Amino acid sequence: MRSTRSTVTFSNPFTLSGYLGELPAGDYEVLVEEELLQGLSFEAYRWTATYLTVRGRGRHAGRSELRAISDNDLKEALGRDAAQSQTNNHSEAVLSPLEDGT
Questions:
Q1: Looking at residue 96, what is its pLDDT?
Q2: Mean per-residue pLDDT for 40-45?
Q3: Which residues contact 48 (CB under 8 A, 6 or more apart)?
């Protein structure tokens, strides 16, 4: 087995398929576990699981939870976040007051 850790950043609150409630924007650690494939003449690994580390809030502050997620669910959540950020940026530009040079 081997584990790889990385960090993903959500700019907006988001949801994950299979879990209730919204998670806050911020940095989240992703843990990917893989197992070594036996019997090959070269080293190769097979993906076995992906987890998102979720830090507790409120009375659960200081605790963290590993939430099993699929790679597709993570990609979809990040895609929704990027789309929402892009929409928010365009909205702010449209709603910004115009400067009056007179």
A1: 43
A2: 91
A3: 1, 33, 34, 35
List the beta bridge partners of residue 9.
27
Give, for 91, the enclosing helix (H) or strand (E).
helix 71-95
- Dig out the tokens for 41 from the structure: 């003449």
Question: Averaged over 35-47, what is the pLDDT?
Answer: 92
- Look at residue 35 and tell me whether its pLDDT is greater than 90: yes
d(CA 101, CA 16): 47
Beta bridge partners of 66: 53
Give the residue carrying structure tokens 């892009």: 86
Using the predicted structure, report yes or no on whether residue 76 has a pLDDT greater than 80: yes
Q: Identify whether the C-beta of residue 7 lies closer than 8 Å to the C-beta of residue 27.
A: yes
- Residues 28, 34, 35: CA angle, nearest 5 degrees: 160
